[in-house]
């Protein structure tokens, strides 16, 4: 029979010991980013886990000494060859008994995750992201962009005429490594490198689309926030790092958005918004809300799109850029169109046109280089399409294709695909097939899950008209393309 002292000892709470091994496995990912990676890995093996940043924190703090069986399978999938003890967990057999409980009255072992009873619920990490401004950890060893290009591509990002069609070269640009002296902080060199990373990612996206870029772009994003967390030599540098890291988060979020990873995009945009709020950067806040509105529209949340666009316009009021306000009015119009509110949509479109007519200005944000009349027409086409006026939408899409700068290959593919879809819905099948053929050719160079899905819809709409010559030609080429056009990236 146990002694009184033994019984008393067994009733005390087991002290938590930080799981440093698991923290090392997380690497430079933020808790929210790592939680998203866990959920993706779970889907790959058919599991459902409600992992969020809070769960990651509980594991690393030692509160969860051993994961439940679902999480164990996911972690083993993510880190093949590692056992639970290798990951810093206690062996399951040591935590299943009475001694592993926090008290004699506990109803479940400390090892198990109390949230596992409803793993169907996907907790999102935005609340955690909005509570903190930075990714934790030491200063980045380097903000590396080596190999930041679509998978399998090896030639220059702006190909010479003789270069193979559809290829881009490795992009090499690194931020100098961290200072080894204690207390060393980032300087102008690091701030400049973060800003350059944003420009290079946007250049590659303009040329080649998001697929294949997203996972490569997350590394410089993590490094940028680590530099920010390490501090800066002067307030001006710190402000530049804030703005640069926030813009980089938006750029990486857009890559996720355009490649169909909506949950990841939402997380990155939320992190950018958090950064903007912490440093009081109205321009960054407007940009983050702008992209959030666009994402909400594409994700089927039009009311959220309207509210985010209106919040962006509020932030932009003091920035002195009519062109920015024009784009934000278009984002609002897209939300109203998704709600089927013709009045709200047309009013926002009229406001966008009026503000655009004011012309470019010195205070226009750098990231808005894509926003010219072609983009105005393309976004207007999307609004009329959502309202069911496909003929009117086709007119705007046709102008968007004609006006687009050749540099923006991805947007040419987008507007051409929009044109094909609107023509097909309007019944102009021959012209639709011709445009669809052009879009299919462009998609050999541009990798965008969003555009591919749009072309898939056009192909389905055209199938009943196969007997028409151009339609049959498009459908044959569509079917014999190297990979299914609508296939989502791995």
- The number of distinct β-strands equals 0
Tell me the major beta sheet: none
Helix content bin = 55-70%
When the domains are counted, the total is 3
Q: Number of helical segments? A: 21
Distance between the termini: 58 Å
What percentage of the residues does DSSP assign to strands (E)?
A: under 5%
Round the Cα radius of gyration to an integer and report it. Answer: 25 Å
Query: Would you list the SSEs in sequence order as H and E?
Result: HHHHHHHHHHHHHHHHHHHHH
- Overall average pLDDT: 76
Structural shape? globular
Q: What ranges have pLDDT less than 50 throughout 5 or more consecutive residues?
A: 1-13, 96-182, 482-490
Output the structural class.
mainly alpha
Notes on the structure:
InterPro entries: TPR-like_helical_dom_sf (IPR011990). The protein is mostly helical and 490 residues long. The protein has 3 domains: 97 residues, no CATH class; 142 residues, no CATH class; 119 residues, Serine Threonine Protein Phosphatase 5, Tetratricopeptide repeat (Alpha Horseshoe). It is built from 21 helices and no strands. The chain starts with a helix and ends in an 11-residue tail after the last helix. 46% of the residues are buried.
Which properties best describe this structure?
Serine Threonine Protein Phosphatase 5, Tetratricopeptide repeat, mainly alpha, 490 residues, TPR-like_helical_dom_sf, disordered C terminus, 59% helix, 21 helices, single chain
How does the SSE layout of this entry go?
Blueprint: H1 4-11, H2 20-26, H3 31-44, H4 53-61, H5 69-78, H6 92-95, H7 126-131, H8 188-208, H9 214-230, H10 235-258, H11 262-279, H12 282-298, H13 302-316, H14 322-338, H15 342-357, H16 373-386, H17 390-403, H18 409-426, H19 429-442, H20 449-462, H21 469-479
Helix pairs in contact: 3-4, 8-9, 8-10, 9-10, 10-11, 10-12, 11-12, 12-13, 12-14, 13-14, 14-15, 14-16, 15-16, 16-17, 16-18, 17-18, 18-19, 18-20, 19-20, 19-21
């Amino acid at each position: 029979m146990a002694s009184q002292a033994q019984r008393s000892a067994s009733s005390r709470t087991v002290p938590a010991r930080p799981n440093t091994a698991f923290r090392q496995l997380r690497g430079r990912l933020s808790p929210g980013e790592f939680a998203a990676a866990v959920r993706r890995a779970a889907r790959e093996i058919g599991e459902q886990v409600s992992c969020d940043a809070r769960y990651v924190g509980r594991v690393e703090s030692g509160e969860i000494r051993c994961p439940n069986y679902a999480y164990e399978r996911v972690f083993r999938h993510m880190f093949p060859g590692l056992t639970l003890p290798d990951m810093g967990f206690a062996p399951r057999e040591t935590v299943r008994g009475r001694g592993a409980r926090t008290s004699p009255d506990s109803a479940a072992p400390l090892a198990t995750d109390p949230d596992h009873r409803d793993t169907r619920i996907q907790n999102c990490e935005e609340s955690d992201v909005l509570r903190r401004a930075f990714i934790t950890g030491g200063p980045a060893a380097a903000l590396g962009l080596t190999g930041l290009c679509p998978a399998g591509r090896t030639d220059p990002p702006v190909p010479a005429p003789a270069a193979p069609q559809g290829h881009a070269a490795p992009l090499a640009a690194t931020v100098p490594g961290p200072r080894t002296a204690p207390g060393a902080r980032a300087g102008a060199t690091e701030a400049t490198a973060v800003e350059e990373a944003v420009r290079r990612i946007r250049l590659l996206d303009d040329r080649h689309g998001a697929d294949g870029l997203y996972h490569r772009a997350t590394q410089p994003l993590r490094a940028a926030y680590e530099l920010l967390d390490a501090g800066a030599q002067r307030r001006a540098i710190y402000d530049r790092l804030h703005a640069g890291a926030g813009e980089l988060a938006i750029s990486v979020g857009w890559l996720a958005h355009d490649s169909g990873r909506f949950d990841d995009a939402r997380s990155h945009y939320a992190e950018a918004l958090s950064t903007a709020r912490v440093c009081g950067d109205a321009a960054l806040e407007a940009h983050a809300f702008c992209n959030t509105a666009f994402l909400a529209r594409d994700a089927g949340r039009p009311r959220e799109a309207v509210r985010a666009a209106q919040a962006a316009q509020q932030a932009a009021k003091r920035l002195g850029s009519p062109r920015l306000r024009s784009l934000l009015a278009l984002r609002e119009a897209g939300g109203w169109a998704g709600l089927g509110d013709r009045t709200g949509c047309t009013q926002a479109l009229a406001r966008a046109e009026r503000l655009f007519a004011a012309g470019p200005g010195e205070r226009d944000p750098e990231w808005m280089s894509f926003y010219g009349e072609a983009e105005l027409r393309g976004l207007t086409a999307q609004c009329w399409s959502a309202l069911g006026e496909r003929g009117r939408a086709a007119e705007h899409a046709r102008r968007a294709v004609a006006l687009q700068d050749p540099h923006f290959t991805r947007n040419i593919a987008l507007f051409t695909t929009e044109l094909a879809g609107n023509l097909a819905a309007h019944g102009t099948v021959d012209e639709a097939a011709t445009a669809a053929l052009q879009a299919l050719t462009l998609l050999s160079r541009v990798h965008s899950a969003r555009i591919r899905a749009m072309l898939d819809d056009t192909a389905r709409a055209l199938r009943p008209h196969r007997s028409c010559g151009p339609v049959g030609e498009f459908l044959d080429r569509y079917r014999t393309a190297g990979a299914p056009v609508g296939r989502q990236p791995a």
